[in-house]
Amino acid sequence: MTSVTRTTRTELDHRSSDSVDVTLVWVTGEGIDQTLVCVRDKRDGAYFEIATEPYLALDVFHHPFAYAAFAFGRGRSAGCLAR
Questions:
Q1: How would you label 35-65 residue by residue, b for 16+ Cβ within 10 Å and e otherwise?
Q2: Is residue 17 part of a domain?
Q3: Considering only CA atoms, which of 4, 5, 45 is closest in space to residue 21?
Q4: Is 1 inside a domain boundary?
Q5: How many domains does the chain have?
Q6: Residue 28 in contact with residue 36, Cβ under 8 Å?
Q7: pLDDT tens column, 67-80
Q8: Is 82 part of a structural domain of the chain?
Q9: What would the pLDDT profile of 50-66 be if each residue is shown by its tens digit?
Q10: How far is the first Cα of the chain from the last one, in angstroms, to the nearest whole number?
């Protein structure tokens, strides 16, 4: 049997600079409580997400490329809140 988990994504902050959008999101749901930083490059459509501990969330938000090695979901996406 497949179980379905409902989650809510709440945008905490967003910034744009030089065609790069960075969004800080809080994800909550049944047993889920995490922060996520989403990065989208409008020039080429590249997209990735970085799951982060809450105490690091603002640092990851301000310096996402320093944490890019920890990213998942690389590719193209509609965005962080589209799920």
A1: bbbbbbeeeeeebbbbebeeeebeebbeebe
A2: yes
A3: 45
A4: no
A5: 1
A6: no
A7: 988 888 766 555 66
A8: no
A9: 999 999 999 999 999 99
A10: 23
